[in-house]
Write a structure and sequence with these properties.
The protein is mainly alpha-helical. It contains 21 helices and no strands. Helices cover 71% and strands 0% of the residues.
Amino acid sequence: MLFSSTIFLFYFLPFVFCINYLLSFSRKLQNIFLFIVSIFFYAWGEQEYIWLLLLSLAVNYAGALGIEAVRGSRPAAGEAAGAAGVTEGTAVSTDSQTASGAGKHTLFTPDKLLLVLLVAVNLGFLGYFKYFDFLTGLVNKLAGGTVAEPKNLLLPVGISFYTFQMISYVADVYRGTTGAERNLLNLGLYMSFFPKMIQGPIERYQGMGACIRNRHVTPELFACGARRFIYGLGKKVILANQFGSVVDKVLANPMDQISGGLGWYVGILYTLQIYFDFSGYSDMAVGLGKMLGFELTENFNYPYLARSVGEFWRRWHISLSSWFKDYLYIPLGGSRKGTLITCRNLMIVFICTGFWHGAGLSFIAWGMYYGCLQVAERLFLKRRLECLPAAVSYIYMFFVTVVGWTMFRADSLTRGLMLLKQMFLLRPGIYDTAMYMSHKTIVYMVIGIVLCGPFQALVPCFKKHMQDGRSIYLSESLGLILLFAYSIVMAVGSTYNPFIYFRF
């Protein structure tokens, strides 16, 4: 069920708000209701794998309780260091304590073994359904024959997001930064809460658990949530869908027949599309959360204003970037073990980031591309960029981002490299820019470029009002009504409506 569908907007959502309001006298009943409707929301388009969601819930619920039970009176891994892994500094003290104190005595503790088992099970679910066919095809190609038959598995919607959530939950229980949830319903709501179920943000239990246990929806909070939802809906159906319809038409053609100019044009359109599509969904998720009393993580901070790759990834898909930092980069050693290890860790993290996005060589290459750029910035490039005018950094990041998203969008690594070759060599092709450039698309592209960061940088009070404001003015209310109405017209009349990150 898409957030931009009429079924969701005019049937599901009003029903949820009405019943949730009527049950406001009982937090327990509200949680039961929200869990049920979240399961219904997921099952609406994913009946085949509802059992996998519930199995994952049961395994991690029991596993987290088991970690606390077998640990007994022994201090949690993060207690002495003050929540290890949340920042790189705390990880340093934890590691030094382990090395100097517990050492080999804590290497194979029962709670650590149980954590490893839970992580393996979670990654096993994800790996089987998302990567089995890809790895089978790769092995068969390398072997020159059929070693194993692919199963043509359907990818369970949202599995990448809820798997990472549950890994963070059991890891935090092991570290002692959060306690194991003994109420299965609360943990189930954390895992399946419908606003962030399909595309995130990837929430930590410590923050969301507090909202599950105690929340209050005020008229001001509800109004601000509605405003955020409407802005997100507009981003998706007015801008992202317009860009996406052109991108899909162009890339349906053979790559070697697309002119270099058209390649750059479609690369810019896709750069805008994926931002307004994903940030639009995130705005809708945050808005829905506010309307139901939940404070969800901000997932975007105008990433196209970044002046380096490192800054870009601190602004883009923030919940995923912070997840990899806290649960992979820092445990690998972060940046505290010398330049060589730091570069190795960065490459591992970005290769995993690419692989998380999809089972394909193009995604792995995309991750390696950003990993190499991050390493180059760490070694020498960032210092040199900082000595140059800001305009040079913005041009550098514009070029880097468009090339990266072009590679990301390609259906395969071969097609992606072929299109990039056309672009860099500015080769002519049967399909040229003029064939796909309309006045309407140009107008939307200019609007998209202005609204993806430059306007917010020039008018910082707008950004603050969007994220922190607790009031809506009458003029803004009228504008929101018009924006919502126009978005509905666009959503109903459009044949292009899927969210890009649904397939991840």
